[in-house]
Amino acid sequence: MEEREQFELSFRESLLCSKLINPITMQYAIETSALTKSFDEIIAVNKITITVKPGELFGLLGPNGAGKTTLINMLSTMIEPSGGSAFVWGHNIVKEADYVRQNIGVVFQDTTLDDRLTGRENLDLHGRLYGLDGKTRKDRIKEVLSLVELTERADAIVKTYSGGMMRRLEIARGLMHHPHVLFLDEPTLGLDPQTRLHIWDYIKLLNKEEGVTIMLTTHYMEEADKLCDRIAIIDHGEIVALDTPQVLKNMLGGDVITLELEKPDDIEKLCGAYQKDGCANTVSNKENEVFITVKNGEHEIPHVLALASGAGISITSVSLRKPTLDDVFIHYTGRAIRDKEVSEMEEVGYKMRSRRK
Q1: Which of 66, 71, 300, 317 is least enclosed, having the fewest CB within 10 Å?
Q2: Torsion (CA) 56, 165, 195, 187 in degrees, nearest 10
Q3: What per-residue confidence (pLDDT) applies to 2?
């Protein structure tokens, strides 16, 4: 018994010490230098160097398999890097892993809730694991349940929750011990559009109200655009672009003209014609469509169509719009992230995965 009490006292002291780092004097909440992770001959994360300031909402945007989750797993001390270094809230993720864990919260892609317990019991268990005393746990549970609007369902068994409610409870659990940094791995994966919007509201609220530094991974363009202060586009384990959403879109230079071709085989020929003419700032393509960015798109459309006609290429449709992050991703990687439409079966799948033991 004495040994257990001594352990709890030591843990609480180390937790207090780790929290004494002042965010006002800290330059970066997260800092990596050439961080690398390989599995046998596969390089999942390749020499990533990024910095995230305290209070920032930072996004990792990329398709499945790009290395986003592997990066989060390293920063949250779940796996050790193969090379490079990283610091989270001033602590080395390898040499000071315990201190890192005391300062972070994590919401994984698949739920790790105990669906045989109530929401309140899940939160209470998490608080106990972090050494919070009874009064602190009770007060904090009330706060985080209110934050994610689950107070009325707090004493219901988790297996009766919807997918969105489970996600909100996981976010609440991640905040129980007042973390300085919160990692959200695909926080809205498998949720319907309406629930996804609600989760976005909670994420923005806790970033402002709790002052939590957040790093989230996503393959949803709109999610990254709406939520993040800055975005790192990651592909094949490497950062290919990093800046604010607006600056990334502005990099393409102007408006986007989309041309649908009658014959997909003509794509290379048309791209070559636009590049040779110099009318476009960027030229990219996907399937039977060509995307070009130009200034004053309304005035450039006749010239763009004339070039296609002069090259003997038939255009079936043309449209004009402002650049999106999808255009940015296509520009830097040569392909699009395919956002799957969320179906009822996806939410069922999310709940089924949450019940695996």
Answers
A1: 317
A2: 40
A3: 52
Q: Which fold has domain 253-322?
A: Alpha-Beta Plaits (3.30.70)
For the chain, give every domain's residue range: 2-243, 253-322
Distance, in Å, from the CA atom of 165 to the CA atom of 158, rounded to the nearest integer, reads 9
* Position 107, amino acid: V
Dihedral sign from CA coordinates of 11, 151, 114, 2: positive
DSSP characters for 120-159? HHHHHHHHHHTT--HHHHHHHHHHHHHHTT-GGGTTSBGG
Task: For 244-258, write each residue's pLDDT tens digit.
Answer: 999 999 888 889 999
Q: What is the DSSP letter of 118?
A: B
Taking alpha carbons only, the member of 356, 346, 351 closest to residue 166 is 351
Torsion of CA 332, 335, 336, 337, to 10 degrees: -90
Cβ–Cβ under 8 Å, residues 19 and 13 = no
31-81 pLDDT, tens digit per residue, is 999 999 999 889 999 999 999 999 999 999 988 888 999 999 999 999 999
In this structure, the number of other CB atoms found within 10 A of the CB of residue 130 comes to 20
- For residue 206, pLDDT over 80 is answered with yes
User: Between the CA of residue 199 and those of 98, 227, 315, 318, what are the distances in Å?
Assistant: 29, 11, 41, 36
Give the separation between CA 298 and CA 201, rounded to whole angstroms: 36
Neighbours of 108 (CB within 10 A): 18
The pLDDT of residue 342 is 37
Q: What is the DSSP letter of 194?
A: H
Dihedral, 199, 204, 205, 209 alpha carbons, nearest 10: 150
CA 156 – CA 236 distance, rounded (Å):
42
Side-chain-side CA neighbours of 3 within 13 Å: the count stands at 0
Give the integer Cα–Cα distance in Å for 187 and 200. 9
CA distance 354 to 320: 43
**C-alpha of 85 from chain center:** 21
2-243 fold: Rossmann fold (3.40.50)
Q: Which two structure tokens, joined as six digits, stand for 281?
A: 């700032």
- Quick check: 202 and 165 in contact, CB under 8 A? no
Q: Are 214 and 207 in contact (CB under 8 A)?
A: yes
